[in-house]
# Entry
Amino acid sequence: MNQRKAGVILSYLSMGANSLIGFVYVPMLISFLTKSQYGLYELMGSVAASLGLLDLALASTITKYYSQALERKDKKEQENVLAVSAILYGGIGVFVLFLGIVFYLCIDPLYSKSLGPVDLLKAKQIFLILLFNVFVSIPSHVFTATINSHERFIFVRGVNLLKILLQPLVVYGVLSVKADVLLLVITQVAMNLMVIAMNIYYSFAKLKISFKLHEWSSRFAGEVLLFSSFIFIHILMDQVYWRSGAVILGAVSGTVAVAVYAVGMQISSFYLSISSGVSGVFLPKISSLCLRDNADTEINKIFIKTGRLQFVLASLILSGFIIFGLDFIYFWLGDGFNISYYVAVIIMSAYFLDVVQNTGIAILQAKNKHAARAYIYTATALLNIVIGIPLGKLYGPIGCAIATGFCLFMGKGLIINMYYVKQGVAVGAFFKEIGKMSVSVIAVGLAGYWLNAAFPTDGKIVFMIAKIGLYSALFALVLWRFALNDYEKDLFLKPARSVWGRISR
# Structure
C-alpha cells in the first residue's frame, strides 16, 4: 500500500475515532469538572484557537512550495524554502504572542463582571498555558508540512491517530487523581508537545532536512504571504459560516434556539470532516504535477478518482442520516432536539458537492488559482449574514440553516464549479461519473426509507442499530455490484487478501 492510500485511510480512521470519542469525551469532561470549570476551558480554548488560524494557512503554503522544490531535486532551493518559512513562522509566532498578551491584559475588564475572583484567576492561567501551546505549535508546523511534502503520510497521520486514541485515556487517568481544569489543559498541551517532538525528530533523523538561508528573496516571501492570505481568508469565512447563525439566534431567539442550532451544526461538522483527509494528502502530488507537461490530464484523473470515492462515503452518511437521523438524535440527546435534525440535513445537503469535490481545493492551491475561491467564499459568507438575520427572526434555527445552506450551495457548489471549468478541471466528466453512481444510491436510499417506515424503532436503540447496519450492508452490496469499478474494488480486496494470507499461513 502506497503512502497516499495509507494516508487517506489513516485520515478517515482518525476522523472516525475523533467523532466517536467526541460523543464520549465531552460528557466525561463535564462529569469530572464543574460546569464553571468546563465553561472556562471552552471560553479560553476558543480564544486561543482563534489566534492560531493563520498557522493553518501557512502549513498548506509550505507544503506546496517545498513539494515543488523536491520535484526539481534542488537541494539549495529546499533549504532556502525551509529557512524563509521558518523566519516567516517565527515572525507570525511573535505577532500571535503579542496579540495573546494584549488579550491577557483585557481578561480582567472583559470578564470581571461575569466571573468571580477564583474563576478569573483560573481563566488567566488557562489562557497563558494555551497561548504557550499556540506559540510553540506555530513554528512546529514547518516540520509537519515538510513530512507531508515528502508524502510520509503513514507517520504523520499515524501519530495523529495515536494521539486521538491516547488523549482521552490519559486525561481520564489524570482527572481521576485530581479533577482540575488546569491539569486537563496541562495534560493536553504536554501530549501536543510530544507530537511536535516526534515530528521534529523524524524530519531531521529520517528525512535529513536542513535549514539554510542561501538568499533572502522578498519576492518569494511576498508570494508565500499572499498565497497564505487567501487561504486564511477562506478559513476566516468558515468561522463566519459556522458561528454567524448562533450569534444571530442568540440576538433574536434566545439560548434554547442557539443550543438546537449548535447541535445541528456539530453533526454537520462531523460530516464535513470526511473530505479533509483527501485534499491534504494529494496537495504535494498535485503541486509536483503542476511542473510537468500534460499536467491537467493527470490532475483530472486524480480529481475524478478521488471524487468517486468521496461520493460513495458522503452518499452513505448523508442518505443514512436523512433516513435514521431523527431516531439517532432522540437516543443521543433525548426530546427537544428534533429541529437539530432538519438543521443538519439542510447544511449537510448543501455541503455535499464541496465534500465530494474537495480535491479541487488542492488543485486550485497547487495552481496558485485559489484567490478567486476566497473572494467567492467571502461574498457568500457576507450574504449569509444579510439573509440570515431576517430568516432567523422569522423561522429560528431552520431560517438560519436555510440561509447558510443556500449560500454554501451557491458558493461551494454552483459558482465554484463554473470556476473549476475555467481552470481546466474536468467538471463535465466528473458529473458524468457521479451521475452513473447516483442511480444506485437513489435506489438504495428509497429501499432504506421503506425499511425505516415499515419497521419503526419504538424507542429501542437496538432496533435503530440493526436497521442502520442492514442499510449499510445493502448500500455496500448494491454499489459493489452496480457502481464501483475494478480500481475501487481493489482498494478493499488487496488489504483483505493480504490479511487473509497472513492468517492462513
About this structure: The chain has a mean pLDDT of 80. The two ends are 20 Å apart (CA to CA). Residues 304 and 432 are 10 Å apart (CA to CA).
